[in-house]
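=== Structure Prediction Worksheet ===
Name of assembly: unnamed complex
Input type: mixed (protein and possibly other molecules)
Chain count: two
Listed entries:
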Amino acid sequence: NAGVTQTPKFRVLKTGQSMTLLCAQDMNHEYMYWYRQDPGMGLRLIHYSVGEGTTAKGEVPDGYNVSRLKKQNFLLGLESAAPSQTSVYFCASCRDGRTDTQYFGPGTRLTVL
Amino acid sequence: GENVEQHPSTLSVQEGDSAVIKCTYSDSASNYFPWYKQELGKRPQLIIDIRSNVGEKKDQRIAVTLNKTAKHFSLHITETQPEDSAVYFCAASKGSNYQLIWGAGTKLIIKP
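=== Predicted Assembly ===
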């Protein structure tokens, strides 16, 4: 039981490049979330999903897109990376989005030059 | 809008002493209040949570108290140890949908 995994762990992009971050969970959770965490800061919600085939915007969705084609996977895309998107990205999943523990992945450290 | 305020932003205590972190929330429909611990370079992990039908919950050296009338909840760590050094985040469920509203975090420093 791996829990929540994220791919890749580290990535360096040039401004304007695109990439996709993959989050996978093996706990059969309905709810999945993408957060970003800037140095010394808290967690800010980018997008989330309440089930397969659904997505919704969080607090800071601009510049990102997401897809949840399979229940166990939640993809975060950056179409044209900007230096302001340099951050650590965490994925999380939970059974019940209102009253349950969110389990976090190990994070992806992204640097945009 | 809905928000969670967390204080203090940094807390330094002597090893063996107690630490208290406080959060206030604005959404009266919030009914779930978790606390997460994030060690340096690691992922956030749940350490304790409380639901609105309970006023206090304990787990060994950690306790959380909730005052729904005043809309605040607190994390209490007793007999602090070096491994308690980390950033602690409080959160509150958002009444209308499936998100958590997060506090800004408290950096807890345990002095030897």
